[in-house]
Design brief:
Helix content: 40-55%
Number of helices: 20
Strand order of the largest sheet: 3-4-5-2-1-8-9
Structural class: alpha+beta
């Protein structure tokens, strides 16, 4: 049994001792029931905001959303959100209620929440208050809207993505009526900001049940990523592949390491295939240049969803290089390490592994090939071999000291020296490198 933090217990007890009802509610109760340690705790109370502030007059209190009944109380350096029981009026913007009305009824407060599993309240003694069968749905592994699904999605269409995310992460099934309403309401996602969509998408992709979501609900995802729709049912007509492009992609995402950059690259790695499909005289399908096309489509999608530059750069690198062969040699591995970075090299191998696992079973022996690449890279790194300019025993100042003029020639010479070291033509020793640089100086 998970114990509530002392700060949460203190807040609940103070509210009760002051004559108010008080419970933890939402995701923390859901996680508590599932045996998962909650990350944060939300408290709901019958106390009006001003009454809450009075109860905690001896503590730091922040008016985080007092118009909607929420204040934040800081107890022993721990911020805790406390919200008055409320009823929400119409959501005119598809996200925020136009007005909230405070109520003394916990059941009325629970009725405004999205899914039954998030509508359960609990007091500090561990007693549950469950008006809509949330615990039973958790026990059965079901995601169900509170009351009328279509109304819940009209209030905030992001709930459609939240349902998919919860299903992916928990492995729960979406109840039929809720699922039907999600599909019928999917166009409402166009009203949702790119940032909110992106956040749910990344969590969804990192779930354990992601393949099922991609296969069953690609039409929902295609509302904001129409490029995915072209992959559905696209026969690859190639002996390497036993799946169409969408199922192959879903399989790769499922098999990939649960890291956002890798899972995003897995989703996008073949997204350009439908754009460059050709069939040869033997009836075999080919996708020449699909890496470059997939990279450009990925850039467009990630820009649209407003991904940060670092994530975008890493995902684009992986998509662009996912199909590039790497010879199992120190020279070839060092060149990729130089091009991408250590982190990205291993991310690329993880993507290649997953890509291979999503192909015909006849080609699974490639996993041994990836093992060898990882082994070589590990040796190169452990031995502190030179594969980047920062590892090179000379720098620009050294070249200037032997007569090079500042300018692009210095960069070109350093790259030439690095290539010579990587190719094993010269040792990474300062004097030898300077001697070679002087010898070639007239060309730079």
């Amino acid at each position: 049994m998970i114990r509530l933090p002392k700060q949460v217990i203190a807040a609940l007890r103070l509210l009760e001792e002051s004559g108010h009802e008080a419970y933890i509610v939402g995701g923390c109760v859901r996680d508590y029931i599932m045996g998962i340690e909650p990350h944060d705790y939300d408290i709901t109370t019958s106390a009006l905001p001003e009454e809450t502030k009075q109860v905690f007059s001896g503590y730091q209190v922040i008016d985080t959303g007092i118009k909607h009944g929420t204040v934040t109380v800081v107890i022993d350096h721990e911020p805790i959100e406390i919200t008055t029981f409320r009823i929400d009026d119409d959501y005119l913007d598809g996200r925020h209620p136009s007005k909230v009305r405070f109520t003394k009824s916990l059941k009325e407060d629970a009725a405004r929440r999205d899914f039954t599993m998030n509508a359960i309240a609990m007091d500090y003694r561990g007693n549950l208050y469950d008006y809509f069968g949330g615990k039973e749905d958790i026990d059965k592994g079901i995601i169900r809207c509170v009351l009328e699904p279509a109304a819940r999605f009209r209030e905030d269409a992001l709930r459609i993505m939240r349902a998919l995310r919860f299903s992916s992460v928990t492995g729960f099934n979406i109840e039929a009526k809720t699922h039907e309403a999600m599909r019928e309401s999917k166009e409402l996602l166009l009203k949702i900001s790119a940032e909110r969509i992106r956040e749910e998408l990344v969590k969804l992709l990192c779930g354990k049940n992601v393949k099922k979501i991609l296969m069953e609900d690609v039409d929902i995802l295609a509302v904001f990523m129409p490029e995915l729709a072209k992959m559905k049912g696209f026969d690859q007509r190639n002996p390497h592949h036993v799946f169409d492009v969408l199922e192959h992609t879903a399989e790769v995402v499922q098999m990939a390491k649960k890291e956002p950059v890798i899972r995003l690259a897995a989703l996008f790695h073949d997204i350009g295939k439908p754009e460059c499909f050709t069939v040869d005289e033997k009836g075999i399908g080919h996708f020449y240049g699909h890496g470059a096309i997939s990279t450009e489509i990925t850039r467009s999608v990630m820009n649209r969803l407003k991904f940060d530059n670092d994530t975008k750069k890493k995902v684009l690198e992986l998509v662009e290089n996912h199909d590039a062969p790497i010879e199992p040699s120190e020279r070839a591995v060092k060149r990729v390490l130089n091009k991408l970075s250590q982190e990205q090299f291993f991310n690329l191998i993880e993507l290649k592994r997953a890509d291979n696992l999503g192909q015909s079973r006849d080609f699974k022996d490639r996993q041994l090939y990836y093992d060898r690449l990882v082994e070589i890279a590990g040796e190169v790194i452990a031995q502190e071999q030179c594969f980047s300019l920062k590892d090179l025993c000379v720098n620009g100042r050294d070249l200037i000291s032997i007569g090079f003029k500042p300018g692009k020639g210095i960069g070109e010479m350093l790259k030439f020296l690095l290539d010579e070291v990587i190719d094993g033509k010269i040792e990474n020793e300062r004097q030898k490198l300077l001697d070679l640089a002087q010898k070639k100086q007239k060309n730079y």
